Give the backbone structure.
Amino acid sequence: MDMRRNSEGYYDPTAYEGTKDIIREEQEIAKLNHKVIQSFRLLVDLAGFEIVGRVTLKHKESGKVFK
């Protein structure tokens, strides 16, 4: 998806410039969450356990919840 275009498909550089830092930060938080979950799964496996239920994480700074 090209973030430089609006929902109608027209080029909208102003909106892109205003939101690109927020989008980048959200992507970085999502990548970090993925790494944390991978590490947690490995740790649990090495300890001889398995995850049976859903693991919910909340990013302290942004407040975003990952389920």
The helical segments are 13-46.
